Amino acid sequence: MISSRRQKTSIGGEFSISGWEDEHKSIQPYLVITHTCFVEKSGCKRISEFDVPDKYVGKTYEMKYIALDIQFGKDKEVC
To answer: Where would one find the signal peptide in this protein (predicted)?
Structure first.
C-alpha cells in the first residue's frame, strides 16, 4: 500500500507532497490532479495522471510546468 494525502496548490500553483509505502517490492509512483480545465460538461471534473520517474523515489522531483489544458492519454472526465 502506498499512502499520501490530498494537497492543494499555493496561489502560485506550487505544491509539495510526500508519501510512504509498506510493500517489499518496488513502487511505481504517480501524481493524480483533479481539475476543471477544459471539461466538456458543466459540473464535471477531469482527472490527469502523471508518472513520477522511479529514480526520484525518496528524492525531490521538480515537475516544473504542468499543462492542464492539454489532454493526455491517462486523462479521464468524471461527472
So the answer is: none
